[in-house]
Design goal:
- The complex is a heterodimer of chains A (304) and B (437).
- With 304 residues, chain A is α/β, with parallel strands linked by helices.
- Chain A has eight helices and 14 strands.
- In chain B, the strands form two sheets. In chain B, strands 2-1-3-4 form a four-stranded mixed β-sheet, with helices on one face. A two-stranded antiparallel ribbon of chain B has the order 5-6.
- Chain B has 18 helices and six strands.
- Chain B is mainly α and 437 residues long.
- The chains are: A alpha/beta (304), B mainly alpha (437).
- The interface between A and B is medium-sized, with 27 and 21 residues.
């Protein structure tokens, strides 16, 4: 089942089309990567889900009910542009945000304490936001986003400005939230940063969806039967169906060779031939990155 | 509504807890008290006698010249040159030298001093001299002075206002003071707290909290929560000011009053000042003054309309200020948008004199019904009694006015707060105003 279903979303601004007839379905308990370059329309779409702005056309349903003010409490949103009240204490701040999301006071305080324990920051309650480092503020922002235990968590460029330690911490939390049944939408233009996390991916460019589906399917779809080989002595000749694309020395007598296998051949057969000719150090399939897939698809569209 | 309340409470508590709020709240009444004390102090110390030496060669003025405004004339009979030296070396403050003059054309009267005399001093001396010359002329012409004096008649017009239920004696002096005071309070309130709304909105925008907020509350609720929260802060501060100022004046006032000129002798002879304050005479005077205010001004109407214009005027302008805060990216950008909002406020202040001179005239009428001016101008007019229909019209327009500005501000606000780095001018603002959701 899908937690969110968007049909034919179109949004126009004065001088350009931000989203054009976008269909998206976010499956339950999954991590969904909404990928695309800057200006593709990602933030516009996220703002529409959060009812900050409204679509010109199209419908959105959450758990099969049309999007309404009632859904605010089940969504947690960490926008790309995020800040905190500098003069407020961390505890007050989290309490305020949680109450705006409909949580009552006692429950909110209880949960804040749980999160503080989890992040090992028990003495932050009375600290002023302005006394926190940037990394610390990011933790607070993340807690504020998930404190009301939203079923749909929307993170816009979540790792921009995060140091690697915090980024990993947040990644672990996100995986745990998915285990608990939440769905997470990740939006980013740095595709490599979320590739490993996502179950589903949608690529959008200039307001148009160009690809959409489970990550594994997309990757399979874009497999080119290309293998990478690291070996010592040069390869003499390969039988029909195997074609050397490139071959170059990398270091200390080691050579890297890229080989294309025809559809009717098997990788194992290639490996057997190779073992007869040279000493094989590594052998692996070249799987295209999301970034490569994106560039390839955009190019194909431009030509086709 | 719950969320407006949450926002309101946050705005209120975060501001009221600030040190600057506490400082302003408790220091301002002290400052007012201090100014009040200083004014009294200078009024008292200014009444010291100023002794001016007079050389009168005409003999016309001797023992007839009466000083005014704490000036005392002392006649001396020494040569002008030596007297001038005494002025130069500081033993005389001032020297008035009257030659042997012709009373029909008194020329060549000189005043010597080491400082340029104030206009009051010169005028006072002129009057003193003129009175003596006049008396001399009357004598010369052969009129009796008492016959002439009987030509002067004192007339006091008692103005009676017939518009109320009972005839009552109007007192335009007190009406004026009450009107100006309440108009000024409203002006200050709108300006100080209006610009706080603007700054608050701007800070939320520039520190980028706003997008998180509007994913939880509607932009209009966010704006209203802020406007109302700051209004509550302002009201708290005003009430505290009034309470504190009244208590400071009621404690310090009598103490200072005891030192004032009235009963300095008594004070010097060792009567405790506190006792003085409780003297029935002083109390009666105070009661009489209060009575006069109560009699000449319709208090319930005044208080009622004060709170009405106080709040509606604030709401009217705060919405406009919120709109500015939402469209700009920095404090520096606010200037160009502030001007049109400040203009009607400043104009209201500039026309204050005109309104007081003619509180029922056309300018007063128009300004008191147009919402941009009416909170200040109508408050100035009310103590002078305003026809009911004008008051109702003004209040109706005021309510429509703030509903209008709030609606307008809400529409610009919802777009503006999410726009960063956009070059905003009035055309863009108008486009946002007209933009559908």
């Amino acid at each position: 089942m899908d937690i969110l279903n968007a049909q034919g979303i179109t949004k126009r601004y004065a001088n350009h089309l931000a989203l054009s007839n976008l269909d998206l379905a976010i499956p339950n308990a999954s991590i969904f990567g909404l990928l695309g370059p800057n200006g593709a329309g990602k933030t516009t779409f996220l703002r529409i889900i959060n009812q900050i702005i409204f679509a010109d056309e199209g419908t959105i349903t959450i758990e099969n009910r049309p999007l309404s003010q009632n859904h605010i409490e089940m969504i947690g949103y960490l926008p790309e542009e995020r800040g905190l009240y500098k003069k407020m204490k961390v505890g007050e701040h989290l309490l305020y945000f949680a109450r705006l999301k409909g949580l009552n006071r006692t429950e909110a305080i209880k949960r804040i304490k749980v999160w503080f324990k989890k992040f090992d920051i028990p003495d932050w309650l009375d600290k002023k936001v302005e006394d926190l480092s940037k990394g610390m503020q990011q933790k607070v922002q993340f807690i504020a986003t998930v404190l009301h235990e939203p079923k749909l968590i929307i993170l816009d460029e979540p790792f921009s400005g995060f140091d690697p330690i915090n980024a990993n911490l947040i990644k672990d939390e996100i995986l745990e939230l998915r285990e608990k049944g939440s769905s997470i939408i990740f939006s980013t233009h740095r595709m490599e940063s979320v590739e490993e996390l996502c179950d589903h991916i949608a690529l959008i460019n200039e307001g148009v969806k160009i690809l959409d589906g489970p990550k594994r399917d997309i990757k399979n779809q874009f497999r080119d039967n290309i293998y990478s080989l690291e070996h010592l002595t040069p390869i003499k000749e390969l039988p029909d169906g195997f074609e050397i694309k490139t071959s170059q020395k990398i270091d200390e007598g080691m050579t890297e060779t890229i080989i294309h296998i025809a559809d009717n051949q098997k990788a194992n057969d290639l490996l057997q031939v190779l073992i007869g000719q040279t000493e094989v150090r590594s052998f692996s399939e070249v799987i295209p990155s999301i970034n490569d897939i994106f560039i390839k698809t955009v190019k194909e569209q431009a030509h086709g | 509504m719950d969320k407006i309340w949450l926002i309101l409470t946050r705005e209120y508590t975060s501001r009221v807890k600030k040190k600057s709020f506490l400082l302003a709240t408790f220091l301002t009444p002290l400052l007012m008290g201090g100014l009040y004390a200083a004014a009294i102090y200078f009024a008292v110390s200014d009444s010291e006698e100023k002794i001016i030496k007079v050389i009168d060669e005409s003999g016309l003025f001797v023992d007839k010249l009466e000083g005014r405004n704490s000036v005392v004339f002392e006649f001396v009979t020494e040569p002008v040159d030596s007297a001038r030296k005494k002025v130069e070396n500081g033993s005389f403050i001032g020297l008035l030298y009257i030659k042997d003059v012709d009373i029909d054309d008194p020329q060549g009267i000189n005043y010597y001093s080491m400082t340029t005399p104030g206009i009051d001093l010169i005028r006072g001396m002129n009057r003193s001299l003129e009175t003596v010359v006049r008396d001399a002329k009357i004598k010369k012409m052969g009129f009796s002075k008492s016959a002439l004096d009987s030509l002067n008649t004192d007339i006091n017009i008692t103005s009676i206002n017939l518009s109320g239920e009972n005839e009552k004696e109007g007192n335009s002096g007190i009406a004026m003071a009450v009107g100006i005071f309440s108009g000024m309070l409203i002006y200050m309130f709108m300006l100080i707290y209006g610009s706080q709304v603007m700054r608050g909105v701007m800070q939320e925008k520039t520190s980028k909290i706003v997008e998180i907020l509007v994913s939880s509350v509607r932009p209009f609720h966010l704006m209203m929560g802020k406007i109302l929260g700051i209004a509550a802060v302002g009201l708290t501060q005003f009430i505290l000011w009034i309470v504190l100022t009244v208590s400071i004046i009621s404690i310090a006032g009598p103490l200072l009053g005891g030192e004032s000129a009235e009963d300095m002798v008594a004070a010097q002879s060792g009567i405790a000042q506190a006792e003085l304050a409780q003297s029935p005479e002083a109390q009666n005077k105070l009661l009489a003054a209060i009575d006069e205010v109560v009699d000449s001004v319709n208090i319930p109407l005044l208080v009622g309309s004060f709170f009405f214009y106080f709040l509606s005027g604030y709401l009217f302008y705060a919405a406009l200020f919120a709109m500015i805060g939402a469209v700009v990216d920095s404090e520096a950008d606010t200037q160009q948008f502030m001007m049109p909002i400040m203009l009607p406020l400043i104009a209201s202040m500039m026309f204050l004199g005109v309104i007081i001179k003619d509180p029922s005239g056309p300018i007063a009428f128009w300004m008191s019904i147009i919402p941009f001016f009416s909170p200040i101008i109508m408050m100035i007019r009310i103590p002078f009694d305003v026809p009911l229909w004008q008051l109702v019209l003004s209040m109706t327009l005021m309510v429509l006015g703030f509903l209008g500005t709030t609606w307008m501000a809400g529409r610009v606000y919802r777009i503006g707060i999410l726009m960063h780095g956009a070059k905003v001018n009035y055309k863009v603002m108008f486009k946002w105003l007209m933009m559908k959701n």
